[in-house]
Amino acid sequence: MDAGSYTVYMEPGLRHRFASRIASVAAAHRFAIVTDEHVGPHYADALAASLAEHGGVSVHVLPPGEAFKTRDTWAKVTDELLAAGCGRDTTVVALGGGVVGDLAGFVAATFMRGVPVVQCPTTLLAMIDASVGGKTGVDTASGKNLVGAFHEPAAVLADIEVLRTLPVAHRRAGLAEAFKHGIIADAAYLASLDASAGSILAGDASATLDAVARSVKIKAAVVSSDAREHGLRKTLNFGHTLGHAIEHVSGYALLHGECVAIGMVLEARVAERLGVAAEGTSDTIEGILLRAGLPVRPPRDLSSADILAATRLDKKARGGTVEYALPERIGVMAANGHAWSIAVDDAVVRAVLA
Amino acid sequence: MDAGSYTVYMEPGLRHRFASRIASVAAAHRFAIVTDEHVGPHYADALAASLAEHGGVSVHVLPPGEAFKTRDTWAKVTDELLAAGCGRDTTVVALGGGVVGDLAGFVAATFMRGVPVVQCPTTLLAMIDASVGGKTGVDTASGKNLVGAFHEPAAVLADIEVLRTLPVAHRRAGLAEAFKHGIIADAAYLASLDASAGSILAGDASATLDAVARSVKIKAAVVSSDAREHGLRKTLNFGHTLGHAIEHVSGYALLHGECVAIGMVLEARVAERLGVAAEGTSDTIEGILLRAGLPVRPPRDLSSADILAATRLDKKARGGTVEYALPERIGVMAANGHAWSIAVDDAVVRAVLA
Q1: What is the pLDDT of residues A286-324, one digit of tens each?
Q2: pTM score of the predicted model
Q3: Measured between CA atoms, how close is B316 to chain A, in angstroms?
Q4: Which of A232, B50, B114, B274 has a CA-to-CA distance to A106 between 20 and 30 Å?
């Protein structure tokens, strides 16, 4: 599927042809595979062996999880590439979930002022969302993705067969972003996802492939019309302002998709309270998320004041007021002129969090 | 002067109008001035005071010198911006020489995935060369500029009056890059610079402004035809492969421009030895540099083997062989097809270094 300047390949069994596909879209003297301790043992050796027919190969294994998506890890991986003899003529291969994709993408974006990256997402969330669109970056103590770059992949290679080994909690978290795509752009897709969520969680290949394809199509269309997030792309942030804040305050104890689910319900309530969204929008969203087994409220041990404070660290906190992408109704986001985001007073958010 | 998508302003006395110019090319909610301990005391307070009419202002002062152009400094400045409350709607102002420009540019390139930077170069070298073209980055223990990004400035504001306080050694180092522009693209400019070098070193405003204007014109033409350095832009690296190696091995004890001067003489000798350059090219270059008081040989205490080894760390070391941009004759670089660089065997470089 075309995603602007690059292609998203979605073929069951594609992992057996990753190497030749990588070599054809981003030929290089060296290939640096970046993966983590969960994914590496399953797939990195086979990929390294087949890539070796096309150039030098090094494998860089990260500790798993968002807690390691830091500047320190980025610097360490960069130094490993330098030690392995990588120069400008290197292609970085991101083999893993969203954290690996963001971090490896940022390494590629900044290594020798930019080398190609091929995204090989291995989680539902990364296939559906994170690997498409060119956002890369790392977290700092102040918040998520505060340091990064836009760096489009040379290609995205998604093999849904690798999801067989993905824990169901992670499959569920990936569904949250798929629901988001339906909510922001396609009510019919949301309804069909609501019906097929059980099959996807159970690992049904056809239902999963359909969701990946429809989500990537929505995301690619949004991103290719506004790569740098000056307008329409902001709609993809629905659920993420409060979602990121909850993720940050929880110390990344919750999965990203779980936080987005909670964030979507809360932000839809904000939208209703402001009269932006039709009444009942948040209840509809909550019902769908609950049926899929996703959380819809912040854990009790997180303080509302801390969550509110964390929203101010968001990149979307422009000019002192925090901006939200809000729905008008299922399938349609509020344009607010061409801004696609709305400044919301803390008082409204505080009331929703109460 | 137009440099592709942005403008280079060169007006004596422009520093008094920096703030309004910055606000007009890159309006923002906050302005983060990045400067160093040498330049800050002269100009930062006045700039901060006048920028305060256009938004919030914070000032970030670096220790001076290439030794601090590191990922650690980059992270520290980034964290200072976050602590100052900077969000996406921030413009970074780089007020200083090449090091400040590279580092502040990289902060801007990666802050919230990219915010605008306005380059206000305060050295001859930065005005003539570093501030134009969008290269940003930092050094690592492995070599210069190995981590960075292409991030074009919103504008370049050069006031040659600030060069009054620039030590003559730094003015001389800036001249080296101006000579480079003549050597790679304009023999007539090189001849006129050879004649006016004494006036420029003495601080003559008209000779200096002429050199800045002609150099920026050459650099901007090259860069706008090949921003990402796939071809013609490589000619700007003349003198830099060995220059960077010498700079690295010297522990940054020599100024960048001094190393480029030495590098140009050595690389011209490489070109003659390979039969690429007309005989006498290196002697002509050496004569001009000597007349301007620039060094033309590596310091005796640097080992040739170390310098040679350091060339392999270069970004231009593609596929295991180090690539050089080499002259054919004064004013004309060797195209080598459309590559604009030539792989050179270590043996040839070793012979020239001997």
Answers
A1: 999 999 999 999 999 999 999 999 998 776 665 568 999
A2: 0.93
A3: 7
A4: A232
